[in-house]
Amino acid sequence: MPDISFSPTTAIVTASDSGIGAATAIALAEAGMDVGVTWHSDEEGAQQTADAVRERGRRAVVARFDATELDRVAGVIDHLTDELGGLDVFVNNAGGGSNGPFLETTIEQWRDTVALNLDGAFAGLQAAARHMVAAGRGGRLIAVTSVHAHQPRVGSSAYVAAKHGLSGLIETMAQELGEHGITANAVAPGEIATPMNDMESEDAEGTHRPGIPLARPGKPEEIAAVIAFLASPAAAYVTGANWAVDGGMLQMGPQAGSHLTDDAWRRG
């Protein structure tokens, strides 16, 4: 077993050009880590994240990353790890997907969503884990899943299935990698004020959500804070966990169901 006095200095955060990924890269920089920043279509956003990392006195390395290009995923992780001089923390944040009724979802839409949210995550997490095992210093593997890894959502069958799969992958990784001093955990955000949801962080406080106990969307920084904890020495005994960071949304299942007044929910 590696020594439990784990002190991370290097991290990679996929899809860190905006939203949760950008906030996480900045939080890890504030915790003393050099950060590999990746982007898929927003190179300018990635450079802004990298600048924010450097403003905190840490190194930033930027690379394009497409989680659906499965034969290239490991190569990007390898490249960033070499540039950083090692890899202590890997955050799989890349994800997303289109919505549509189950009966109308094509096999192509299904495969695209599963490739992005599950296949690409597997390839990235495996590449990162191999570096950590080879280095023999332990490590932290963290996947950003969704509350829908725990409860479904109408019109999101492929996304929900992929996030359930990713949650199960993390739990199995925790079992297999523990002997190497590597922890594997998932963070499951609820509704977060990000560009993907047509919001910015500052919009969270002014947006009312009566169906969430805390009555608002979350901020990317609030997800990043939990990820930063899981990446830290303080989380040495946390592995195989699924952390819902959702303002209490998941606690509202029966309560919300009994208070619905029409069938609008059936349309997603």
Would you kindly provide a written description of the structure presented here, covering whatever features stand out?
This protein is α/β, with parallel strands linked by helices and 268 residues long. It has one domain (10-267): Rossmann fold (3-Layer(aba) Sandwich). Helix content is 40%, strand content 14%. It contains 7 helices and 7 strands, in the order E-H-E-H-E-H-E-H-E-H-E-H-E-H. It has helices at 19-30, 43-55, 70-84, 107-135, 157-177, 220-230, 253-259, and strands at 10-13, 34-39, 60-64, 89-92, 139-144, 182-189, 242-245. Strands 3-2-1-4-5-6-7 form a 7-stranded parallel beta sheet, with helices on both faces. Helix 4 packs parallel to helix 5 (157-177). The mean pLDDT is 94.
Main features:
268 residues; Rossmann fold; seven-stranded parallel sheet; globular
Q: Tell me the CATH architecture.
A: 3-Layer(aba) Sandwich
Average of pLDDT: 94
Largest sheet: number of strands, sense, barrel closure: 7 strands, parallel
CATH class: Alpha Beta
Helix share of residues? 40-55%
Structural class: alpha/beta
Strand content: 5-15%
Describe this structure in a few short sentences.
The chain has 268 residues and is of the alpha/beta class. It has helices at residues 19-30, 43-55, 70-84, 107-135, 157-177, 220-230, 253-259; strands at 10-13, 34-39, 60-64, 89-92, 139-144, 182-189, 242-245.
Any chance you could write out the topology, listing elements then pairs?
Blueprint: E1 10-13, H1 19-30, E2 34-39, H2 43-55, E3 60-64, H3 70-84, E4 89-92, H4 107-135, E5 139-144, H5 157-177, E6 182-189, H6 220-230, E7 242-245, H7 253-259
Parallel strand pairs: 1-2, 1-4, 2-3, 4-5, 5-6, 6-7
Helix pairs in contact: 1-2, 1-6, 3-4, 4-5
